[in-house]
Amino acid sequence: MARGKFITLEGIDGAGKTTHLAWLRERLEHKVGPTGHAVVMTREPGGTPLGEALRNILLHESMDLETEALLMFAARREHLAQVIEPALARGDWVLSDRFTDATFAYQGGGRGLPRDKLEALERWVQGGFQPDLTVLFDVPPETASARRGAAREPDRFESESDAFFTRTRAEYLRRAEEAPYRFAIVDSTQSIEEIRRQLDEIVTAL
Ligand code: TYD
After folding, report:
1. What's the structural domain count of the chain?
2. pTM of the prediction?
3. What is the residue with the minimal CA distance to atom 16 of ligand 1?
């Protein structure tokens, strides 16, 4: 049986990832459903009971930067073992709201953790495993912070400065340049309709 595909969505906070998630899931279900397989929707940090407990800690408790990176990867290991790998082996497709590129972008780019440490953790936790497709919603930090607005109490990441998100965005773009075969960069300043049109094209190609 063919393995399913693994799709991840990335972008800085306020890039519009959440707006497009539900729509994309429906489009995928429409395409994958007739083959008898499911679309499993999940997120990071999180995706398992342990991962969700770690998410709560990661988003709200202050901690050492290296602890933060290690917990992200600990949650990821559990997520891969319990959810992602079994689903792909069954032939289901997996759509994840963030994955390893977020750790490079936020803990690496944003917070400044040396890249070689993250690369070592990436190898440990996932070997050579990478998403089949990563959609990067790209937007200038000022646009993203205006969109985040003051709608709700910001978590430890959402409350970061534009300078932090400038570094985060740059690291996302560097990762995309390094692995163009799996990245699709979507200019997230465009209209919702135009972005949907592009997303449809991207997943149809996959
Ligand atoms: P996010 O995906 O934006 O969810 P919500 O829309 O519910 O706020 O929140 C997750 C936060 O975690 C986001 O600010 C980025 C951060 N994060 C990291 O710093 N490193 C990581 O490896 C991951 C997966 C997320």
Report:
1. 1
2. 0.96
3. 157
